[in-house]
Amino acid sequence: MDVVIVGAGQAGAALAAKLRALNHGGAVTLIGEEDSPPYQRPPLSKAYLMGTMAEDRLWLRAPGFWAENAITLRLGQRVDAIDRAARQVVIGEERIPYDALVLTTGASPRRLPDAIGGGLEGVFCVRSLADVDRMRPAFRAGARLLVVGGGYIGLEAAAVASKLGLGVVLIEAAPRILGRVAAAETADHIRALHRAHGVEIIEGTGLERLLGETRVTGARLADGREIAADFVVVGVGVQPGDGLAVAAGLALDNGIATDAFGRTSDPAIWAAGDCASFPWRGGRIRLESVGNAIDQAEAVAANLCGANRPYAAKPWFWSDQYDLKLQIAGLNCGYDRVVTRGGAAPSFWYYRGAELLAVDSMGDARAYMVGKRLIEAGKSPDPDLVATAPDLKALL
Q1: What's the CA gap between 273 and 362, in Å, rounded?
Q2: What DSSP line would sit under 101-152, residue for residue?
Q3: H or E stretch including 303?
Q4: How do residues 45-56 score in pLDDT, each as one tens digit?
């Protein structure tokens, strides 16, 4: 069985490697739009942007790995279409046949409309190596940065800029930062951290438009205020990379819809990673994380080799800001109570009724590990014990 993988990010690379680890004997072709070999994305907005990580340290595998494992790596090539009837992917005039096709096409950043200045020079998004290479020269001490969006990407960029000596203003249209992904307690901790480092955070105020003729010079906010800026980083979310799936007529549901095994509505086509939505607790979910990209891709690889096992997601995430490592276990969807475990490195425990859903750990690795193990085991300790237990391990 010849497998073609479209998308050479974390999921695509993990899937190709897993196929060979499972002794898959057919051809494996991994196609990526970028010229760089498969690399990890989280350090882009952290260590790589800071200049403390070289490009080759981003690479997921040593340069010789792909050839040594008989994986055909095709870089800098964009797949134009999928011919489902012929079971071929189309690149220009070339057609590449497949027995199984896997879409690991990730997600792309949402951009500001040109009508409000999104197309001006000096306006950047953070998603690819090329994105960060373009913006890095602007991160110079004394420059003025405007961050649009108070999610993790925007906050990480603000932290790097502050550490490098830039003046930083971050605006968030919603009532508070991290409004979609974290409780007010976590947001309060992160906000205080940024303000202690000199970042100005403006919440509950949207962007009317960016200012400038050809290059951005600032922004006008919805309340009429104007902010000067030498450049802008936009972090207003991502959208699943489902363009090929749309054109091919595959079923969609907040991304490329798969069954529990990773198959799409076409049994010869599979999907994994940020682009794919899958069954979750009676509904469907799409996870944007390195952990899910790897785990789901490896599950699909196993199923391509005949395992026939449903994918059981174990969500976890992290964010590095200044010297804080925020670690998140579980998903907080539908929580109705947050329990705080205090101290210099607090943690916030999300409950729905008596059920523990998720944990946000502000630098307390033990709280993260205990919370993760409890959630994966389906155990929910008494909330009062979580807040007061001298030793968290006793909760296990």
Answers
A1: 26
A2: EEE---EEE----GGGTTTSBTEEE-SSHHHHHHHGGG--TT-EEEEE--SH
A3: helix 290-304
A4: 889 999 999 999
CA distance 377 to 385: 18
Residues in the chain predicted with pLDDT less than 50, given as ranges, are none
> Long-range contacts of range 111-114, CB-CB < 8 Å, 24 or more positions apart?
111/234, 112/148, 112/207, 112/210, 112/234, 112/236
- Unique residue bearing structure tokens 């999907």: 271
pTM for the model stands at 0.95
Q: To 5 degrees, how large is the angle CA 284–CA 286–CA 291? A: 125
Q: What is the mean pLDDT of the chain?
A: 96
- Asked if residue 236 lies in contact with residue 112, where contact means CB atoms within 8 angstroms, the answer is yes
CB 333 within 8 A of CB 342: no
Q: Alpha carbon of 168 to those of 75, 154, 311: distances in Å?
A: 36, 11, 42
Predicted local distance difference test score (pLDDT) of residue 392: 87
Q: Are 297 and 18 in contact (CB under 8 A)?
A: yes
Specify the pLDDT at position 314. Answer: 92
Is the sign of the CA dihedral 148, 150, 155, 158 positive or negative? positive
- Gap between the Cα atoms of 299 and 34, Å rounded: 25
Q: Domains plus CATH for the chain?
A: 3-108+239-304 (3.50.50.60), 111-234 (3.50.50.60), 323-395 (3.30.390.30)
